[in-house]
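If you are new to this repository, start here. Below is one unmodified record pulled from the training split, so you can see the exact layout before writing a loader.
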Amino acid sequence: MQKPGSAPLARQTMAFVLAGGRGSRLMELTDRRAKPAVYFGGKSRIIDFALSNALNSGIRRIGVATQYKAHSLIRHLQRGWNFFRPERNEIFDIFPASQRVSEELWYLGTADAVYQNLDILKDYDSEYFVVLAGDHIYKMDYEDMLKQHVEAKADVTIGCLEVPRMEATGFGVMHVDTEDRVISFIEKPKDPPAMPGEPDKALASMGIYVFNTKFLMDELRRDAEDPNSSHDFGKDIIPHIVKHGKAVAHHFETSCVRSRAESISYWRDVGTVDAYWEANIDLTSVVPDLDLYDRDWPIWTYGEVTPPAKFVHNEENRRGYALSSLVSGGCIVSGASLNRALLFTGVRCNSYSHVESSVVLPYAEIGRSARLRNVVVDSRVQIPEGLVVGEDPDFDARRFRRTENGICLITQPMIDALKG
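And here is the target side for that same chain:
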């Protein structure tokens, strides 16, 4: 082990990504896959952002804990994240819930997901341990957070977002002093405490935690023996450290990675159909809030081998074209029109169809003369010829999952029900 200060702290760190959650607010999008495995941005999965942040920060020991309907996620990780080399002291491990501690127990909470694998994790011999949520979209350099953790001699350092105070009611909220030491941690408060000197803002937890590894292991063992604990970082581990140790808040603004094209510190929880649609559609803007073209901080993913996207036909009312859209490899736009659309890999849009303000997941097919507006189409869905969605709200709501903001989620079982 290198001495602290002789190498980047990230090289002495293990990142552990919690990726077992369903994400039920995404409705049918997570019927067959966990939330971290949901597609995002044309070719990526949501989990790729946390993993890419770790890799770009210099962390070369990474573990991913999976649980809910993990096949799609595990397959993606095996295909897209299999380039780590043990002979270079690099590790990439997947930790499915495998009842290692008890034959009757799956992961009981986020802290238990780490605790059940302590016998493996201790062999990685990492000085520091970063716990990450695998279901948010953002770019962040964890090295900066590690430096603050070491300099502050903290027991835990908590990644925090500055948000309007009354919008923090759905988060765990930090009440901090003027030196960013956490005085109290409150889960989803009705009246969130304000930041010092910022009465209209609050510090919300990002679900990102930095620990010294030995300290964390001791805390997890203590928590595992507590019959009253739910074995969760946000509900149990962090409040206990705030009360009995030293917890420090790390401001996302200080370590957020921004390209020249990005004007804000971008972080999104795409946990609802509305938020998911909005974040994807924003990428079709001339200058989106999130820059996926930043070569200095790439978002790594499974690079599926596909032919280029193709646009064909140039006849009146049967012209293949796209305006303000993202079209991924393997797509064929055959005499169809796209406007503010995001097409994932292998989508086919047939003649006379029109797709507007819509997100279409991989290998879906849009039938002839279909008109889709403000929709999310799940992967491999076969949109029938002439289907119209987005023009009659009441009719849409009877056939598909329609949100309060008017976004329709379309899955294959919903299409099959139309035929019945």
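Two things worth knowing about this chain: Residues 213-224 form the longest helix (12 residues). The radius of gyration is 23 Å.
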